[in-house]
Amino acid sequence: MNAKIVLIDDEVKLLKALKRALESDGHEVFDFTSPTEALNFIQTRSPDLIVSDIRMPGLTGLDLLEKLTTSESIIPCILMTAYSSIETAVSAMKLGARDYLLKPFELKAFKDSIKNVLAQDKTPVKQTSENILLGNSEPIKKILEIIEKVAETESTVLLRGESGTGKELAARILHSRSSRANKPFLAVNCSTLPESLFESEMFGHVKGSFTGAICDKQGLFTEAEGGTVFLDEIGDLALANQAKLLRILQDGSLKKVGENKILKADVRVLSATNRDLQADVKTGKFREDLLYRLNVVEIYLPPLRERIQDIPLLTDYFLDKFAKKHHRPVIKPSGDFITVLQSYSWPGNVRELENVVERAIILKKGENLHAEDVLIKNNSEISDYSSSIEMTLGDALEKVEAELIVKMLRSVQWNFSKGAEKMGITRQNLHYKLKKYGIKKESSQK
Prior knowledge:
Layout: E1 4-8, H1 12-24, E2 28-32, H2 35-45, E3 49-53, H3 61-70, E4 77-81, H4 86-94, E5 99-102, H5 107-119, H6 138-150, E6 157-160, H7 167-176, E7 185-189, H8 198-203, E8 204-205, E9 217-218, H9 220-223, E10 228-232, H10 239-251, E11 253-254, E12 263-264, E13 268-273, H11 277-282, H12 288-294, E14 297-300, H13 311-325, E15 332-333, H14 335-343, H15 349-363, E16 368-369, H16 380-386, H17 393-411, H18 416-423, H19 427-437
Parallel strand pairs: 1-2, 1-3, 3-4, 4-5, 6-13, 6-14, 7-10, 10-13, 15-16
Antiparallel strand pairs: 8-9, 11-12
Helix pairs in contact: 10-12, 13-15, 14-17, 17-18, 18-19
């Protein structure tokens, strides 16, 4: 598809290089070093796509996108930046950016992004939770790096992690970053799928093939043609059905129930589990050959307790989300509110945090959220501190903070620089807190 593209960047050499690359693909390119001039042009010419740097003098790329979002325009936009930040990426996706490129990028990645966005329809994309895995911790950064590498391939991906860690979200991001993004993404939970209906649901059936088959039915793999099928809780799939799934993964062929005709399905398969499939292979509960087919690339989604430094960002996102949903004013979380959240082990992971924040938004009447507003059912870890009549709230929070510091330093082998960075404080502030609470480096870690 040849398109009219507006290209905006105050770095002249890069601007010219990108323009040449797009023109070589047959696109008509209008390049600007001034975002204000570009905006005036866009409002009169309505291009097919806008590609803009974020940090520029005067009007930023985010400012530009916000102005276009508030107008009636639905022109898709790709943002570029040399200054990576999860917060900026979230803002870009909230405003409807279709893609977010981190400089320096390969020319192929740039062209692929252009191709993918132009292939999509022009409906603005604004559901942040469907477009980005929130977090600025090292585990999340590594996951996003892997997603960038494998999204454009056809490889199967196995997503591992506890319930509530965001496995389906990661699958949706993989789909949205692939060349299949404008095709269906269909998900099924294998643990809720009756064993006897597996073939019918996955591959379809013809009328009269079994009792209750009153008409022909398209299966999931046919409905997702050209797109992605996500098999959640794949470890719960019965052995007999594992063999049936293996065939379509081997050569893309399937047969509807009651029909001998062999059909071909062009789909990419992503799967997820909270089970140890290697252990299940050893006990005969899961087919080894199927595991090899599903697990070309493995992505591990860590539990929230292993990335507690992401809790403030996640909390801010959920506060904004539920304030809008329940028509409440935006409430600010206090430091003690965040400290208590970070002291909890979160067995329900991000999903549980989301519920706790929503509950706080609904029940809170003031302008700020404090420690006492954290309502977690059946949780002795927090109630030991915040509900003790023998201890003031300030003392309880200091105890929580001291234990949190020790836990964080253990996770980085008592490297104070890394520990301070993970906690979002300066090294000097960390040493002050160590002295305040009498925390000493553990001898086993020296």
